[in-house]
Amino acid sequence: MEQTLSIIKPDAVAKNVVGQILARFEAAGLRIATTTKMQLSQADAEAFYAVHAARPFFKDLVEFMISGPVVVTVLEGENAMAINRDLMGATNPAEAAPGTIRADFADSIDANAVHGSDSVENASNEINFFFAQREIY
Ligand code: GDP
Q1: pTM of the model
Q2: Whose CA is nearest to atom 23 of ligand 1?
């Protein structure tokens, strides 16, 4: 069964909409294989987003991701990666389709409520970044 990684970012955690976002995953047929709330360190955020290290927004992205706790979840189901990306909506909430998580809960391209793996290969790497196999079931 396919797995993907979701992060509910500090803005959405601060808005107290964690349950509403997790409920959307379940309503779409995805199963929560594991979920945990954590405070990322600067080193965590820099390593997680290393692929973006050369981008002009990298510093802002890292600062934002450590500005408060996040909720990291492994979602499981058929086509889990693509289904989660559809639920999230476009990176820029101003361009996100109505009814998507980012349209409903995000404020800006920085504070955009959720992260979701963008390929099955990246999903596997991102899941291994946060979790040991025995924590996912
Ligand atoms: P995602 O897969 O939709 O989250 O988008 P990306 O992987 O392309 O970018 C990772 C994160 O970096 C996004 O979720 C945004 O928070 C941030 N980001 C991406 N592009 C920009 C940008 O042009 N400006 C700023 N400030 N942040 C950006």
Answers
A1: 0.97
A2: 57
